[in-house]
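Recall that a protein's primary structure is simply its ordered list of amino acids. Everything else, from secondary elements to tertiary packing, is in principle encoded there. The following example makes that idea concrete.
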Amino acid sequence: MDFFHGRDMPGRWYTKMFEVAAGQNGYITTDDARDVGGSAQVLVDMHRHGQVDRVDRGLYRFRALPVGPLDELMQATLWPRRLGVISHDSALDLWDLCDVNPARIHVSVPKTARIRRTALPPYEVHVRDLDPANITRFEGIAVVTPLRAILDGTERHLDGRLIDQAVDAARRRGLVIGEEIDTIDEAR
């Protein structure tokens, strides 16, 4: 099935996949391609025609979409078959809650995720099942809620001053309220 109407002219597959990628900072996975009725081969063909770059196994990026500051985080959530969620120090940083400066991108994946390859060097993978109420989106990127990020920091024994800073910032901006603050206090 040809996805070009003419030589080097994008067709319906390009349009469908471009729409998905536009909501994912330019990235598209082979699973995304299947979800819109295409196949992994369509992405291989688009790569061959110079429309997408192959980033990793099953992960591509549209050249027509500009690279942005959150691309690495989006990529981190997509490489484990779209199951990743930015968490821990990386979530605290993404929410801009404290002065944490993570050396690696923290990504949580469910226990059912069958990741057959080792994590890429910039990732620290946490395997655990997250309650859907603890997951939200930040500019299209799957990330734990500010409450869960603070609790992750507490569990990992992040410096208390950073936790205090995160709690104060989250409270001031209305990102944690009432019972959530009590939950944080109990965890500490």
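The longest helix spans residues 160-172. The chain has eight helices and ten strands.
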